[in-house]
Design brief:
Length: about 425
């Protein structure tokens, strides 16, 4: 595990709250569904139970024995007028109740009590005329809850079981399956180019998985960009020696019989060919390692700069580099200096200077020219490589400076662009000495 990384804690407090919300909503829906649905599914049983309860209470009022149900309480309304808010009973259930009660010898008025806080589904009132008090009419009451004592416990238990399982299923659908579907939709089957990050959503484990996938995708994107810039820089570097080789071959073709021209050209051709061979080896190593090779070693800075200046025999370059031993990658530093000198030749004017000086624990390499320099202080920032297919536009896009910047980053240093004392541009490579 990376030092300082946040440790994954699994199920978080937020996940627990979301699970409770899902279970609570599912329980409320299940309770409502079962409360309304079970009495409808058990309508025949409910009707029989209500009729038996009304008949039992009516027989108790008449003083008749009812067996084992004698101890059950009776809900009464003792008045001539019907119970308040009750209405005449209508419908199939009411007709079935009347038939059952008539079979039991009960022909009193049957009224419907609407649902209330005390009775979720409402109930029925039956008028009973007691023989001992003929002038006084009594009303007995029965509802699905009183007629079937096990109904509400069954509804509550069923709603808990159904709500709990439905809530967990809803939570998993919301916090697990849906994020996985989004993740699979975001990840391409065949990746190409820059990879887009996936959404970081879902429960704790899913979010942690998305975060780690995004870290891998970011690393792949960085490697892809680094490889692209490295290969583009190599293509840029190959252009300069090829151009110089072409110019020197043309010069030899103009003087094919001049031995002096051949004597001067052969060492220069060898230098350019060696540089092309070095770049080719670098490209082969990069193709095998998939990353830009970096092999620093203790090197003599003055000798390295002398080799760089020697590769420009047609261009006088002032050399002011003291004897310093610095740990650096010689091939990368040579590439960086040659790119800066090529830019100075192309965009500046002679004289040119390659100098170095020691500043505390770092060494500063400077390439200066006598050209117009930078026209604005805003141009002192590092240029970036814009995407372009046009060859001339790529030549003007600052590829060389990007190569130099990458070289400085690999060495743990930086690149700075300032105005030179010669009047032009001064490019500074700040490199750590150790």
């Amino acid at each position: 595990m990376v030092a300082g990384a946040k440790r994954f804690r699994g199920f978080t407090l937020g996940d627990s709250l979301r699970l409770l919300v899902c279970v609570g909503c599912a329980w409320a829906g299940s309770f409502t569904l079962l409360s309304l649905g079970m009495p409808q599914l058990l309508q025949t049983t409910t009707t029989q139970a209500i009729s038996l309860s009304l008949a039992r209470q009516a027989l108790q009022l008449e003083g008749k024995q009812t067996g084992k149900h004698e101890d059950r309480p009776i809900r009464l309304w003792a008045a001539v007028n019907p119970p308040p808010q009750s209405q005449p009973a209508t419908g199939q259930q009411a007709d079935a109740l009347r038939r059952t009660l008539q079979d039991a010898g009960l022909n009193g008025d049957l009224r419907r009590d609407p649902p209330s806080q005390g009775s979720w589904l409402g109930g029925y009132w039956l008028a009973v005329q007691r023989s001992s008090t003929a002038s006084r009419q009594l009303w007995v009451y029965a509802s699905p809850g009183t007629a079937l004592p096990w109904l509400w416990p069954a509804i509550r238990l069923g709603s808990l079981l159904l709500g709990g399982s439905s809530g967990v299923a809803l939570f998993l659908q919301w916090q697990l399956q849906r994020p996985i579907q989004q993740l699979l939709k975001q990840l391409p089957a065949i990746p190409s180019g820059e990879l887009e990050l996936v959404p970081e959503a879902g429960m704790g484990a899913m979010r942690e998985l998305s975060i780690r996938i995004n870290r891998v995708l970011e690393q792949l994107n960085q490697q892809h960009e680094s490889r692209r810039r490295f290969l583009q820089g190599l293509a840029h570097d190959l252009g300069s020696p090829l151009t110089r080789l072409s110019m020197r071959v043309e010069r030899l073709e103009d003087h094919p019989a001049d031995p002096t021209a051949w004597d001067e050209a052969l060492p220069q051709l060898r230098v350019e060919i060696d540089r092309l061979i070095s770049l080719t080896h670098l490209l082969q190593e990069a193709a095998g390692e998939q990353t830009e090779p970096f092999r620093p070693r203790l090197s003599a800075l003055d000798e390295l700069c002398e080799r760089v200046v020697a590769s420009y025999p047609q261009q006088p370059i002032e050399l002011a580099v003291p004897r310093l031993l610095v740990r650096l990658d010689q091939a990368l530093i040579e590439r960086a200096l040659q790119n800066l000198i090529d830019n100075a030749i192309r965009y500046g004017r002679a004289p040119l200077r390659l100098a170095a000086q020691q500043q505390r624990a770092s060494v500063v390499l400077m390439v200066e020219d006598s050209g117009p320099g930078l026209s604005s202080a805003n141009l002192l920032g590092m240029p970036r490589i814009p995407p372009a297919n046009d060859r001339q536009q790529r030549n003007r896009s600052g590829v060389g400076l990007s190569i130099v910047e990458r070289c400085c980053q690999l060495h743990g240093g930086r690149l700075a662009l300032n105005r030179s004392g010669l009047g032009g541009l001064q490019a500074e490579l700040h490199l750590p000495q150790s």
